[in-house]
Specification:
membrane, 5 helices, mainly alpha, 156 residues, transmembrane helix
């Protein structure tokens, strides 16, 4: 039995639409990146204060905030994206994004400490938080394009 061409085209269009919905539903939202950056700066400042009360409160707020953010994102996503859908390009993009931010933050913090600046880790963390807020959505956009560029009939 052969499928009429119009039916095949409609079925493929429906598959593409569903794939776009799945990919879009599982990307990390922009607010997550801003919130993570804010939590990170707050936590580093609390630790760098060297005041036991601030360190304790900052640690608890960070842990609860991070858990809440992750829970919100996980509950928002209805399905799990397979690593094969992201592929090597996506994995390299994530690793590169992470390494650039870590290198920038650590490098700036060390330079500020060598220069005798006060609160070098906290100040060094601010551009990282900005990088997360600005770069996180760009990374998600790139990953979306990568996932949507994969063939519909891929290997399982």
């Amino acid at each position: 039995m052969t499928i009429p061409p119009i039916d095949a085209e409609l079925a493929l269009a429906e598959i593409r639409i569903r794939r776009e919905q799945v990919v879009g539903a599982n990307l990390v939202p922009a607010w997550f990146w801003v919130a993570i950056g804010g939590l990170m700066v707050m936590f580093v400042a609390a630790v760098e204060s060297a005041r036991p009360v601030f360190v304790a409160v900052g640690s608890v707020v960070y842990a609860l905030g991070l858990a809440g953010l992750i829970l919100a994102v996980v509950r928002r996503g209805r399905v799990q994206v397979r690593p094969s859908l992201i592929g090597a390009r996506g994995a390299l993009a994530i690793a590169g994004f992470t390494l650039v931010l870590v290198a920038a933050g650590v490098g700036l913090g060390l330079l500020l400490e060598a220069a005798g600046a006060g609160w070098p880790a906290t100040i060094g963390c601010v551009p990282v938080a900005i990088g997360l807020a600005a770069g996180g959505p760009l990374l998600m956009s790139y990953l979306r394009r990568v996932m949507l560029s994969r063939p519909l009939a891929g290997s399982r």
